[in-house]
Design a protein that fits this description.
Layout: H1 2-76, H2 85-108, H3 111-120, H4 124-139, H5 146-159, H6 168-186
């Protein structure tokens, strides 16, 4: 019995040492897991920042300018030399500002801009030219016939993918006319 009593405290000491080592290993494993999860969270945060700043913001800016172009095109499409000077000045300034902004987005050619316009088939340069054409009517130097204004406005809708209210025939006619204009520009 004496031997059993002597071995017992030695076994307790060894088990206590193993428990301490195990606890130490567990705390090291927890620290590594915390560091790894912090690193993953930081990487996700950096990726999200890049996505927002290099993809999200340009796309939101294009969407806002597209909506603005459609609004101003619709609002000022019938301004003519017979309109008041104040309305003509406002229309001219608004149409040119939005048209210049669309041209700038078209020419900056960021990946997000190109991808967004390719997916939704936006032609920002054509939309800007349509807005400039509508602004010529607001300038008041010459009169633009109603049919030509309608065609220019329809070309704006087609170039910015806002064709839900147009008939299939109007869309097809406009696409043929735009294709002919593009072919003439290339030659």
């Amino acid at each position: 019995m004496k031997n059993a009593t002597l071995c017992y405290p030695a076994m307790m000491t060894q088990t206590h040492a193993d428990t301490a080592k195990l606890a130490n290993l567990e705390s090291v494993a927890r620290m590594i897991a915390m560091i790894a999860s912090s690193a993953v969270a930081s990487a996700v945060a950096v990726a999200a920042w890049f996505a927002v700043n290099f993809l999200g913001k340009p796309i939101l800016a294009i969407r806002e300018k597209r909506l603005e172009a459609l609004q101003f095109g619709e609002r000022y499409s019938h301004v003519s030399s017979r309109s008041s000077d104040e309305l003509r000045d406002t229309a001219l300034k608004s149409l040119h500002d939005v048209g210049n902004a669309l041209l700038a987005y078209s020419r900056e050619r960021s990946i997000a801009t190109r991808l967004w316009c390719w997916i939704f088939r936006y032609d920002l340069e054509l939309a800007a030219r349509c807005l400039f054409g509508l602004a010529e009517g607001a300038r008041g130097e010459y009169s633009i016939p109603g049919e030509q204004r309608k065609n220019t406005l329809n070309a704006l809708y087609v170039s910015l993918g806002a064709t839900w209210h147009l008939s299939r025939q109007e869309i097809e006619t406009m696409n043929r006319e735009l294709a002919a204009v593009r072919r003439n520009e290339l030659t």
